[in-house]
Amino acid sequence: MYTGLLHLHHWLPFVYLLLMLVVLVQNFLVWKSDNPFSDKLARQNKIVVLLTHLQITIGLIMLFGFNLDMFSDMGTLMGDAGLRFKYVEHPTTMILAAVLITIGNAKSKRAEAASAKAKSVVVWFGIGLFLIALRMPWAEFLQGA
Ligand code: HEM
Ligand code: HEM
């Protein structure tokens, strides 16, 4: 079970990060031009939110369903840089990023003008992606699960 979740949590980000980049570029182009904010773009932004939530949900299940004993000795957990990264810094930073991405999409939906809709996504998704990049376990991600 855990192996399956870990594989999902490992491979989903490839699709996720690619789509995130595509969506950022597309929203940026709408923000900086007179192009309309299409239903298709709104749908793509929504899929990024969906994949973000899915990734976070899988992470939460991995952490609290299978690794709860990590938190029985907080001194060791916080004192070991590797453990702290994996079980504390990575989850908290990613949850913060997901909150920002969700807010960005909600603000985009509420905005009126096409450029305001697109700008909200670029700014909030952009900060979210920056946070994800900061606390992503790049070595594990790139070397394969
Ligand atoms: C930890 C569990 C989750 C929480 C706390 C959560 C919370 C939220 C919140 C606050 C929104 C914002 C709605 C808005 O834009 O006004 C949202 C939207 C959304 N979530 Fe989640 N979610 C969770 C898990 C999931 C999962 C597992 C999925 C699907 C795999 C998912 C898919 C979506 C989608 C598709 C949207 C819609 C965005 C839109 O309407 O544009 N979420 N969620
Ligand atoms: C956008 C959000 C996230 C991304 C892109 C992401 C990505 C990753 C990646 C690539 C790994 C390395 C997997 C491997 O070893 O091959 C990983 C590990 C891990 N993630 Fe996430 N993650 C996210 C959110 C979360 C959240 C919210 C939690 C917990 C609440 C979480 C918990 C974990 C745990 C516990 C591991 C270590 C798994 C292990 O080695 O047993 N992740 N994550």
What's the structural blueprint in terms of helices and strands?
Layout: H1 2-31, H2 39-66, H3 74-79, H4 81-110, H5 114-134, H6 138-143
Helix pairs in contact: 1-2, 1-5, 2-4, 4-5
Bound molecules: protoporphyrin IX containing FE (2 copies).
Task: Give a brief rundown of this model.
This protein is mainly α and 145 residues long.
Provide a descriptive summary of the structure in words.
The chain has one domain. It is 83% helix and 0% strand. It is built from six helices and no strands. The chain is elongated, with a radius of gyration of 17 Å. It starts with a helix and ends with a helix. Bound molecules: protoporphyrin IX containing FE (2 copies). One protoporphyrin IX containing FE binds next to α1, α2, α4 and α6.
What brief labels describe this structure?
elongated, 0% strand, 145 residues, mainly alpha
Q: What share of residues are in beta strands?
A: under 5%
Q: Helix content range of the residues, please? A: over 70%
Bound molecules: protoporphyrin IX containing FE
Indicate how many domains the architecture comprises: 1
- Give the tally of β-strands: 0
- CA-based gyration radius: 17 Å
Question: What separation lies between the terminal Cα atoms?
Answer: 15 Å
The sequence of SSEs as H and E is HHHHHH
**If helices are DSSP runs of H or I spanning 4 or more residues, what is the number of helices?**
6
What is the global morphology?
A: elongated
The helix-and-strand class reads mainly alpha
The largest sheet, given as strand count, sense and whether it forms a barrel, is: none
What value does the average pLDDT take?
Answer: 97
Multimerization status: single chain
Instruction: Name the poorly predicted regions.
Output: none
